[in-house]
């Protein structure tokens, strides 16, 4: 290894593009060694050695049969940005090491926050950290209790646990009990069913946080933004960019109604820092760049149409399920999340026998297992997914 | 935006490589719009629009005059991996969405943990989260107090604050007081001065965590690994990969002596999860891939030689500072961290007048400001850095 290995190696990068765009021309290599190798094999051979694990044998989240988790495929412009940001390795912790990258993150927040009526915020490696950050700020503002609905994401429980706060789970937002010292966490698009809890609930809570990790981007859609009406009354909002904003992981937003006060309450100073360190992370990368590039490339209108298409795919899947005598729909899709199942073959058996090119996820609601399909993949083919599940049922019955 | 935008776009990716490898052929574009644009300009134009902010006007961490923060330049093989991992967007939260990526992270841990006598662990977006994770596990094992030295990173204070634990700062590891319910956080390579606190200290503590965010990779060097002798007695160790393992952000390890017990104590189950969610993050990307690729390319030996070279650069800088009558050295470099200053021009004035192509960081030790140079850049030129500081002093005096 020498200093040239840190320079742009055109041959290496062109080969990386070739393997990515024409994988069919390449034959896989031997498995990776079990221990850290003593000597290197060089960058070109290392690239080939990674082909299987990173590319060929990865899950194709954009395949027609993938209608499963909240993880989307990503547009190629975001890949180009990851190539670039990795090459520059700016650290947003220091103005010195990220003169423009800090501005880029501020710009990304400026582009997104107004759609939610928030004044600002920052980016985090996911909505778990975004939720933790919000509940931390709420605690600093005086909250002692976290109150959430039964459908809240596990990160709410995790955050309360980390922060040493009591966590009260309620069935009904119209019957919350005293919220004077509570942060009410209202979920817009629950993980299991996509349900949007009442966004105007808990108006008397000390702090109102809306976990819109999944559904937040609907706000950009003219057709669907009304689903999030009222979200602008929150004190803080978590939104994943690596879900319905089609970003590579790890990327999310925590937005605040009053971000200056909130940021001040979750900042720590350090002798080696020119500016305070805000939020959970210390060092922080240029995760805004792929988002800004994608929004530039397609505009609000382009992203919204992609989300609208995804919502339509969930409706189509629901229609196919309803139309089939052997299949059962739990309810109409919520925010592109559909829970369904086969009437006579268990969820586990279906999942076990799915064809390789079809994937659905699963969840448990009130003790009952369901298949779960989330419309994160704009290329999903509902008919293929239904056919795959029926095929799995057939295969399971024959065994 | 349509489904083709999610496919490998060879023309776009080749252009991204061209702009990265031959930036001199490109003229910068107009500033980015202040608001989210309604309509898109397409991926090719978006790429051009990002050139300035992401590439041209970023800080060059690998420039000869950059001898500043703990942020290294990154080898090109890691850029190729970021291109690939962004394209696949695997989510390690689900075995379904990361069949190989989960194995890659396990492999990265298997390659690194044995050098520290640890049984396993996982990757985090930085050592702040790694430290938080360790102190969380320590709390679950019964700790109520965090005890650290005065040089501990601010993330220790932040973690104690987040976790609702008392934080006791001590001057002297030989006089700690009762540690029966304490997690002792010993810093191997303090942020300000690079000092390694006694790694065998606090042997009676309930939990011993070593924050080796900066210095950890020295363990891979035959010449320098003795500096970390005793580290294998820790209960947990934090190591940044995006510092001295030359990884793009955000990348670090939390390693545990008994990772199975530790992971169990910091895991949360969820109805939609096939396996428990371990640690602070929820969704999690394939950050192991660039590290494994780099270690494959250069081997332990190659990385160690790069770290050894960096240590030599710090020694060279120290020698130049000592040899110059106008410059003052605080002490010999510790783990490649050097604190120094001009005898008659303030740290602030020096920093203000540095030439554009020279950068040092600064810190405050016992109330005294110092310039700080961290040997994260294997391409740094100590003579150029000293010349830049002397030039800044001259410029400052003339004003």
UniProtKB/TrEMBL annotation, chains A, B:
Q: Which cofactor does it need?
A: pyridoxal 5'-phosphate
Question: Which keywords does UniProt give here?
Answer: Decarboxylase, Lyase, Pyridoxal phosphate
A single GO cellular-component term from the record reads: cytoplasm
Q: Which Pfam families match?
A: Pyridoxal_deC
Q: Which GO terms describe its biological process?
A: carboxylic acid metabolic process
Keyword Lyase appears in the UniProt entry: yes
* Molecular function terms from GO: carboxy-lyase activity; pyridoxal phosphate binding
Which PANTHER family does the record match to this protein?
A: CYSTEINE SULFINIC ACID DECARBOXYLASE, GLUTAMATE DECARBOXYLASE-RELATED
Q: Which family does it belong to?
A: Belongs to the group II decarboxylase family.
Q: What is this protein called?
A: Unannotated protein
Q: Which species does this protein come from?
A: freshwater metagenome
